[in-house]
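Possible regression after last week's pipeline update?

I re-ran a chain I had predicted before the update to compare outputs. Posting the input and the new output here so someone can diff against the archived version. Not blocking, just want to make sure nothing changed silently.
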Amino acid sequence: MDDLTSADLASADLASGEPERWVRIGRSLAADPVRAGAEAGAEALGVGSPPALLLVFCSMKYDTVQLLEGLCSVTPDQVRIAGGTTDGELADPASGGPQIGFQPGVVVLALGGSGFTVDFLVIENASVGQREAGMAAASVMVGLEAPNQVMIMVADGLTRERHELVRGAYSVLGLDVPIVGGCSADSRDYVLTYQFHGTGAGVRRYVDSLVAVGLGSTGPIGIGIAHGWARQGEPMLVTSSADGEVFRLDDEPALDVYLRRIGADRRVLDDPQKFRDLAFRYPLGMSRRSGEDIRVVHDVDVERGTLLCLADVPQGALVWTMSTEADALIQAATQSCEMAISGLGGVPACGFLIFDCDARKVKLGQEYLLAEQAAIAEAVGGVPFGGFYTYGEFGRTHGSRGMHHLTVVTLALA
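New output (post-update):
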């Protein structure tokens, strides 16, 4: 089937009575992967003209080949499809069921109408040169010719130095184009994540890749970024670090300083899962003019006494251990949505795309995670929303920085 032009889409909108821009959400918790993909896709597609884009986020617990086949079975050949695997999906809990985010599932967002312009591409082997990958991905914005634009990125969640993707894209795009997105996940197995790129005629799974979507809109775009964590104790100086690995804090082995600050000793390292759960509760916060950027300690090198993060912790930076409570995390999700809505300048939203950190999910637990999703639903006022729990969030609105952990990044479309 041939690609639809903007004129074709505009004519279809007029004929069907559909709005200029629309967002629909589909979700499924079906155990069978083919059925799950087909159910979520059919719900998101609805009736009327085909969308410009489907974003699909699904559990790694599925056979993703079969799930994507199910999705494609109900999707017109020309429709672009992008996305990746998750540590849980985000959608309105009232419509997705009480296990959304915990039971393996799939969420599909459909963006359609003549007011959206879309292009997309995939950069393979992105870890070989992450800044160069980000620069190459930025070409997706060329030719959109829309008054409002945003670049959406889905990257492999198991590669380090992902901040370089943002810096590379920023070096090409400059200040005018914001960047949002998330890093694909695998339900905290930390073995393999997939990124998706293709069309209704067929979607391919990628690893170690960057999928970039260029989205142009005739309506306003808003972005919110919030985390809900607070500093504890005195600051520490990063006296030696490189490529997301912290060697020394206050000129001592970083691991020993960190354990001392969180009230633990090296015995906790005998149980890797226990240590990871502890580290999720006490991330590092880096001082920024706008607040703190959060970094999760994903692993340690015991022999060298270093902390391993998946994004930069620059030498010379001041860092704190951070802490939070469930209420503050839920409030941050609301704040992220409200910030995004404020960026629309009073124009009613038609949909929201949300990237939330899997470590926040661990901290919240099932009871409070459902409370967070309910708070998001209230904040967006019944407008469709969807997204996923990530291994890191992209959110750049000012300057070249935009790699986050333990943060909620919200994209509002109107």
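Follow-up from reviewer: compared with the archived run. DSSP finds ten helices and 25 strands in the chain. Marking as no regression found.
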